[in-house]
Design goal:
single chain, alpha+beta, 11 helices, elongated
Length: 495
């Protein structure tokens, strides 16, 4: 099978390159007769579930970008001024004070937890008693706060980014799982529709040969070679055949509508589509080995990778909560230059002289007595990590059992194909023999009718076994997680 690639576009939905060119395409964009590869292409290009899951993928991507924004520096500035009356002592006159301040800074946080700020500020405090003369105190420098215990290090501070990245990877696997599900559902619907088409064909064919029997019996009655009751019996069975056709038509309509819902996102014209499928190729036997395929499944199953990523998140949460149990001990320091002058501009200009160094250094300690919340959160994180380990082991068991069930179903479907083909060949020989006996006058109409019914059932069983084998093969690929690789489908990153 030639490889074809499905590309996820940044704007729009999945589209397929080089897939829809295998047959003539009708005016509404659908080929006149669909094959399996075209069905898969349409399912991925127009399926609602794929479009919805793609948006979850993009949301996870933006959540990761948002988490990285915690280290973006911020620019801030402020200005304020005000006056207040201050009563004097011993009935002295009220003094009015005036205060002005202005500042500008740029600051942020680094991955080790270091909080920094480059700032320039100036403050003017004066009063009426001083003649409102300017008294500007200014500072220019850097302030740093460095956690030494709690929130120290890249592990603690990159936690939200790491979790967002893991969630993004989970979303990536979830998107792949949705594509696998959509492809598997499209394949299953294709074979279900193919069987419904063949089932109707067999019902019509069985009706036609019964109609021929009715006509032949009437001729035999006319020449006196058969009793009229044989005609009535054949006509009664013919009526039942018509009912079988109606039931087959109903089943076909249901399968057509299911098929349309998978390959299209249209609303207006979907009921007008007349879908026809290309004939199937003869099935080929596939050797399977559950033991070796188990490792293949663990390497390819999206749900197993998601479970492992979820465990990674819970392990990181436990490590972070262990850090959060520590007391807060922060080193606080600043260094720069100070100045004081009677004017705003002259005060700022004096900072450039670099003559008046100013610095502070100290520490801040804080520890909740008992620290019950941090201890509880750590224990919760450890319990959730243990749950993840248990879930992974349970998932491994589920995958192994799913493989065994799928392999067994696949094997039995292949055996059913051989048995049903043999049954159909024998039923056709039996019908031919009883028909000849009836024509020579020694046969029985009821025997011929029974042989017709057996042949029709046997033919339906052949088509059922073949389509079930293909559907079981699709399910086995899904359980292995290799559906996309099997059909030559790759999903480039949405980045």
């Amino acid at each position: 099978m030639r490889r074809f690639v499905f590309i996820v576009q940044v704007v729009g939905v999945l589209t397929a390159q080089g897939v829809l060119g295998y047959g003539e395409v009708a005016n509404d964009g659908l080929p006149e007769r669909l094959n399996l590869r075209q069905t898969i292409s349409l399912a991925l290009a127009r399926n609602f579930n794929v479009q919805l899951e793609r948006q979850d993928y993009l949301i996870a991507k933006e959540n990761l970008n948002a988490a990285k924004g915690k280290y973006d520096p911020s620019l801030s500035s402020s200005y304020s001024e005000g006056e207040s009356d201050i009563p004097g002592l011993d009935n002295t006159p009220i003094n009015r004070s005036r205060n002005e301040s202005a500042s500008i800074s740029i600051g942020g946080t680094l991955s080790p937890g270091t909080a920094y700020s480059f700032e320039v500020f100036s403050n003017n405090s004066t009063s009426r008693n001083e003649g409102f003369l300017g008294d500007f105190s200014s500072f220019s420098g850097i302030s740093i706060t460095q956690p030494l215990l709690k929130d120290f290090g890249t592990g603690a501070n990159n936690f939200s980014i790491k979790v967002a990245r893991k969630n993004f990877e989970i979303s990536d696997w979830a998107f792949k799982q949705q594509v696998i599900n959509s492809v598997s559902n499209a394949i299953d619907a294709y074979y279900a529709l193919y069987f419904a088409e063949r089932n109707l064909e067999v019902a019509i064919q069985t009706r036609d040969i019964t109609q021929q029997l009715v006509e032949n019996n009437r001729k035999r009655v006319d020449v006196g070679r058969m009793a009229p009751s044989d005609v009535v019996l054949a006509e009664a069975i013919l009526a039942r055949r018509e009912v079988s056709i109606l039931i087959a038509e109903q089943s076909l309509r249901f399968q057509q509508n299911r098929f349309k819902s998978i390959i299209s996102d249209s609303v207006e014209s979907i009921l007008d589509w007349d879908i026809k499928l290309e004939p199937l190729e003869d099935p080929l036997y596939q050797e399977i080995n559950v033991d070796s395929d188990f490792e293949v499944a663990l390497n390819n199953r999206p749900d197993f990778h998601q479970a492992q990523l979820d465990r990674d998140i819970r392990a990181m949460t436990a490590r972070r909560n262990r850090n959060q149990r520590l007391p807060e001990l922060d080193l606080v320091t600043s260094y720069g230059y100070a100045s004081r002058d009677d004017g705003f501009s002259s005060s700022l200009k004096a900072l450039n002289d670099g003559r008046n160094e100013a610095y502070t250094i100290g520490a801040v300690f804080r520890y909740p007595l008992g620290n019950k919340n941090a201890r509880a959160q750590l224990q919760i994180a450890r319990s959730r990590l243990l749950q993840s380990d248990i879930n992974i082991e349970q998932l491994k068991q589920d995958i192994l059992l799913q493989l065994d069930n799928a392999a067994f179903s696949l094997e039995k479907s292949w055996e059913r194909i051989q048995a049903s083909i043999n049954s159909s060949e024998l039923a056709e020989k039996s019908l031919t023999a009883d028909r000849r006996r009836l024509e020579t006058g020694v046969g029985n109409t009821r025997f011929v009718i029974n042989r017709q019914t057996e042949l029709g059932n046997a033919q339906v069983s052949v088509f059922r076994a073949i389509t079930d084998y293909y559907r079981d093969l699709t399910d086995y690929d899904r359980v292995l997680g290799i559906t996309l690789e099997k059909h030559g489908i790759s999903i480039p990153s949405l980045d």
